[in-house]
Structure formats: structure tokens, C-alpha cells
Design brief:
mainly beta
Length: 101
């Protein structure tokens, strides 16, 4: 998969992020899905386990999406809440998540 150079034209805004897995757009074509995580099962220690999702235009076919079409690229993965958030984002945008890093 190849990607063209991207230019960020706005300052990222994470104010809409929650820890329930909801996809929150923090910049144009970029979302974050955050989820509360208790490492090692330590319930009084909560961290934000994040996945970042980017809208990309493919330069080659990938995951059932044809070259030249937009898709969602997921970097990182949390638990059920994040997976739900990415699936909801697919429905909301009409785009398919084709890659997971």
C-alpha cells in the first residue's frame, strides 16, 4: 500500500474523545477511538487505550476496496468498545476499514 503526502491544515482537537470507544473526529479525515484500560487488572489505574483511524485514498486494491477509492486505515486496537467504534464509523462514513496495524 502506498500513500501520498498529507498536509494537516488544522490543529488536532481531542476534546470530543471519550473512553467508551466512540469514534471522535480530531482532524479532517482522522478519528480517535479511546477506551478505558486497567493494565494488569489493576482497577484503580485507568489508561486510555486508543486506536487512530485515517481516511485514505488507495493507490492499489486492498481488502476488497478498489484503487482510487477511499477507505479507513486503523492504527492500534483496543477491546470491544474500540472495535464497536470502528464498525460504527464504517456505517457513518460508508467506508470500509481495510487495514489494521
Amino acid at each position: 500500500m502506498t500513500m501520498s503526502n498529507a498536509v494537516v491544515c488544522q490543529k488536532p482537537d481531542f476534546s470530543r474523545e471519550d473512553w467508551n470507544g466512540t469514534a471522535a473526529e480530531y482532524a479532517q479525515g482522522a478519528w480517535v477511538c479511546g477506551e478505558a484500560h486497567a493494565p494488569g487488572g489493576i482497577e484503580n489505574l485507568r489508561l486510555n487505550n486508543r486506536a487512530f483511524v485515517f481516511r485514505l485514498t488507495l493507490k492499489e486494491d486492498l481488502g476488497g476496496v478498489r484503487k482510487g477509492n477511499d477507505c479507513l486505515f486503523v492504527f492500534g486496537l483496543g477491546k470491544d468498545g474500540v472495535i464497536r467504534g470502528v464498525k460504527e464509523l464504517e456505517k457513518r462514513t460508508g467506508l470500509k476499514a481495510v487495514a489494521l496495524m
